[in-house]
Design brief:
single chain; alpha+beta; 4 helices; about 15% strand; elongated
């Protein structure tokens, strides 16, 4: 029947692209699948900020008339240290909480974070993204595994000097 969503190939292709992005973002992170709506909003935001084949401008540029900037973009699901406002903090209490980045805010310049320890979603601009920390740990872990594998691959069982007469 004409006019149904199944007839609109462009919309169906966009929905398939969005669901593929959501599936991949959730798979590549350690976050729960109940955050799928937040992932979907982040994926839509990303697609609105990048170019497509059909139009030379991004949707953001078409809507606002301004050039889009990608400098504020962060990797979804990465660890973040945020400072929450709490007037009851004592001098030696922890002032930051470890959370995960889940999406960009629509109405301000902040971000949205999921805090699994307190099971809540927080919006703030005061955050320290630990992307470098996670990447450095991954790279150092990769090189440690590489060196171990390389050492084991080239390790040759040589007879000891005491047992050398057995092979002569």
């Amino acid at each position: 029947m004409p006019g149904t969503p199944q007839e609109n190939d462009v919309a169906e292709r966009r929905n398939r692209t969005l669901m593929d992005m959501v599936r991949n973002m959730l798979t590549n992170s350690s976050l729960h699948s109940f955050l799928w709506t937040e992932v979907l909003k982040a994926a839509v935001h990303i697609l609105n900020m990048v170019h497509s084949k059909s139009v030379p401008e991004t949707p953001y540029e078409i809507w606002t008339g301004r050039k889009s900037s990608l400098r504020y973009m962060k990797i979804w699901g990465y660890l973040v240290k945020i400072k929450l406002y709490n007037p009851f903090l004592k001098k030696l209490d922890m002032k930051t909480v470890t959370c995960y980045f889940i999406r960009y805010l629509d109405h301000s310049k902040g971000y949205r974070f999921y805090c699994p320890h307190v099971t809540r979603i927080v919006e703030t601009k005061r955050a320290e993204f630990l992307e470098d920390f996670k990447l450095k740990n991954y790279v150092s872990m990769f090189y440690a595994n590489y060196e171990t594998t390389r050492f084991e691959a080239f390790h040759v069982n040589m007879p000891s000097a005491h047992g050398l007469h057995q092979y002569v």
